Amino acid sequence: MGRVVFGVALGCAVVTCAIAAVLVGRRARSRRKWRRAVEVLREFEEGCVTSIGRLRQVVDAMAVEMHAGLASDGGSKLKMLLSFIDSLPNGNEIGTYYALDLGGTNFRVLRVQLGGRGSMILSRQVECRPIPQELMNGTSEGLFHFIAVTLKQFVEQQEDDDSEKKPDEKKVLGFTFSFPVRQMSVSSGILIKWTKGFSVEDAVGKDVARCLEEAMTKAGLNMRVAALVNDTVGTLALGHYYDEDTVAAVIFGTGTNACYVERTDAIIKCQGLLTNSGGMVVNMEWGNFWSSHLPRTSYDIALDEESPNCNDQGFEKMISGMYLGDIARRVLYRMAQESDIFGDGAYNLSMCFILRTPLMAAMHEDDSPDLREVGRILTESLQIPDVSLKARRLVVRVCDVVTRRAARLAAAGIVGILKKIGRDGSGGVASGRTKGRPRRTVVAIEGGLYANYSMFREYLNEAVAEILGEEVAQNVVIRVTEDGSGIGAALLAATYSSNR
Ligand code: GLC
């Protein structure tokens, strides 16, 4: 009997020890895995360092590349494309103009009534339409036909409501086409390549303004393109319309890019073409900027390699709305592979672009103590339920690293432009001051990433001030314009419609 009792007791003790060993082992393994997840974050953070020293190197590299791109075609990854815009709207524009804004997943048609000095913009009507996915990857005829028909419907609807309509008069359009275009004049230009997920291959090498005009004629729309502009150029036009100290414009949206007013004598590559001795707007296509000083991680390299435009748009892939969410997703996926912090749903993180930047912004900006919004987005949008609070905190930190790096590099890009035009305070009296007083410099900014993502905005503004120093930063105004890419094109159509 005694032996039986002893045997049972021994058996229980062995089982208890085994359970305890399993539990201890499991806890140790889970701690190890958790530590691995934190290490993944640390390594990523280290790879993304944007110290002030590094930002200054990026500023210098941007200014150097700008010089090189202005000196010769192909002299830099920055294309530095001439816009032929040598006079910007100033408020005197008058009349009714149309604009078409194509550059992302939606396109917009606008009608703007300008009242001349004093009355400024009297009215504007806007309509926004998504571009069907098949047209983004189809033929140029299909894409322009769709746009022309939509524009025609919009014009007819506007004219129905207009008591002073003049149906036979040729209408004037400003066409914002936000892709790299080699302009031949203000109103014509050849598409160099697509960016941002478009691939209507037969449009490359064609004059996109003529493609649109042909489609409009076929659709029975009596309209001509008076200005073909990049979205940065439209934004600069609207910025300048409101404030004549505006010298540059930057877009932070699906893609990113900048333009600015350059002295004509600094545009060495096209001297023969330039008649005006003043300034001309240059579309930098800075999305393609590259420098060895950019902090690039294995996640950026993988994103680039898996993209349809590998080795292209390197700066854009670290900064713009199309990519930020996917950089964060890649880091989270690595964490999921090396730990179990996301449980069974982690597999979903293997899907490219499942985490879109607006969702990432919403998680980053969740200030509830239990990170409820992070939990909701992980559950509802990524199908990863029951993520612990500790792990949700890691998610927020990943978003922070991605966005902080993007915003600080963008700030360095802006200061690079200011340096190139002598407005960064380093050029002394001759370049940045008038009669001993520092000149005011306004940079117009547009795009959802800046307008809707407050952490991105704060990091960017803070870094501009940090790089410039307090005194110089006081004279640099970063001003958000609204709908510049559309209204700006209508303003430029007004400025240039009499010149053709
Ligand atoms: C992409 C385009 C560029 C555009 C920018 C912002 O970088 O190449 O032309 O300005 O996106 O929309």
**Beta-strand content bin:** 15-25%
Fourth-tier CATH superfamily name of one domain? ATPase, nucleotide binding domain
Shape verdict: globular
**According to CATH, what is the class of one domain?**
Alpha Beta
* Strands side by side in the biggest sheet: 1-11-10-9-14-15
Radius of gyration over alpha carbons?
A: 27 Å
CATH architecture of one domain: 2-Layer Sandwich
Number of helices: 17
Small molecules held by this entry: alpha-D-glucopyranose
CATH topology group of one domain: Nucleotidyltransferase, domain 5
Family: Belongs to the hexokinase family.
Keywords: ATP-binding, Glycolysis, Kinase, Nucleotide-binding, Transferase
GO cellular component, one term: mitochondrion
Catalytic activity: D-glucose + ATP = D-glucose 6-phosphate + ADP + H(+); D-fructose + ATP = D-fructose 6-phosphate + ADP + H(+); a D-hexose + ATP = a D-hexose 6-phosphate + ADP + H(+)
Give a summary of the structure in a few sentences.
The protein has 500 residues and is α/β, with parallel strands linked by helices. It has helices at residues 2-47, 52-71, 133-136, 140-160, 208-218, 231-242, 298-305, 314-319, 324-338, 357-364, 372-380, 389-420, 428-432, 448-452, 454-468, 470-473, 484-496; strands at residues 81-82, 94-102, 106-115, 121-130, 171-177, 181-185, 188-191, 223-229, 246-252, 256-263, 279-283, 433-434, 437-438, 441-446, 476-480.
